[in-house]
Every structure is written in structure tokens, then in C-alpha cells.
Amino acid sequence: MRKFVVLGHRAITSADFKLDDLCGSTGRLDILLRCVNSAFFLSHAIRKDVEIALMLLGEPNPPKTVRIDGSEVKYLNPDERSTAALIRNALLQKGEGERKCSPGIYVSERNYREVLSNISKESKIYYLKEDGEDIRDAEFGPDCTFVLGDDQDLTPEEEEILMDYEPKKVSLGPISYHADHCITLVNNELDRRGPGSG
Ligand SMILES: C[S@@+](CC[C@H](N)C(=O)[O-])C[C@H]1O[C@@H](n2cnc3c(N)ncnc32)[C@H](O)[C@@H]1O
Description:
8-stranded mixed β-sheet; alpha/beta; Alpha/beta knot; about 30% helix; globular; binds S-adenosylmethionine
């Protein structure tokens, strides 16, 4: 299973936003929406063996974690607007614990440590960072989780928490790429290695 955790440092945590203004009024939720595209979409299919946790850390109700499971997800389309509508629906769901909002889409108030803690029980954690080990030289088992920032790098506090889970730092090269492009590059690298690698 291949997983991605994306930290949306300012991403809005209420459903009070307009689908027509995703760049301006959502704390850059648009970046996370593009990450969803990169994580799941193949030319004519959705990746079933991928999961993404979007950590929405902006105002007014942080944290909110939206988890999308490729093995179950339905109604996911490549346009950002319709994915934004699915996430807006998730943000409307009240309750406790992790709630299913639509097929394959779950919302919770799990914080970053809780998300990492859950994932680390069954998956090796990798920290995507420009100065890490070249991904081409890194080894990957069948269960890999990649943690990355949105348009901002992880804060020192977020890095410190991540270190508790003994991540391996891997690089896609010295140039800084957009978060969604990083996901595409990771998917490509692991796809080329074949089954058994992420
Ligand atoms: C758009 S970047 C964040 C800001 C960027 N580091 C900068 O200097 O503007 C988003 C995230 O993608 C990941 N990332 C970007 N380029 C990378 C690379 N070459 N190798 C590994 N991870 C990278 C990092 O996790 C980063 O926090």
C-alpha cells in the first residue's frame, strides 16, 4: 500500500468556501486537490492501492484530516472543483472519530501525530525533502508512506514530531517541486520498480 500525507498548513477547516475561488479563499486547498489528482489518477483508471491523508490545519477548526482510500473511492473526477465539493461535504460531517462521508472518503479530527502514529504501525515512513537520499538509490518495501508539505515546508515542530517515527528522508533531486508534482514523481518511481515496492 502506498500512502501520502500532505500538510495543508493554512487549508480551511470549515465548509464555508466557494468552489469558484479555490485559490483565494481556502488557504490553498487547491494545492491539496491537485495532490489528490496526482495520487490517484492514471490515464483511464484510479489507483486502488493508494491512500492520501490531507491534513487541513488552517482556521477555523483545525485539525481536520480527510483520508481518501483508492480501493473504495467513488465519484472522484480529475477536476479540482468536483474534488473540492467532496471535501466540502466531508467538512460538513459532524460527529466523533473517523466518519465516512462518501465512498472512500473519511473525515476526522486526528492531529498530525495521531495520523503518523496510526500509519507507522503498518507502513515505513519516508520524508520527502530536497536534501534527502536520492529516491533512485532508496529501498522500498510493499508499505510506504510519504510525508510532504504544501507550498510551505514542514515547520521545525512538524519535523520534530515526524522524527519520532524514524522516517527515511528521500529526495527527488535538488530542485524544489510543487507538492503534486512530487507525488507524481514518487508514483512513477515506484511504478517502475513493480509490485512489492510501495
Ligand atoms: C512546494 S514544496 C515546499 C516549498 C519549497 N521547499 C520551496 O522552497 O519553495 C512542497 C513540498 O514538496 C516536497 N518537495 C519539494 N521538492 C522536493 C524534492 N526535490 N525532493 C523531495 N521533496 C520535495 C517537500 O516535502 C516540500 O515541503
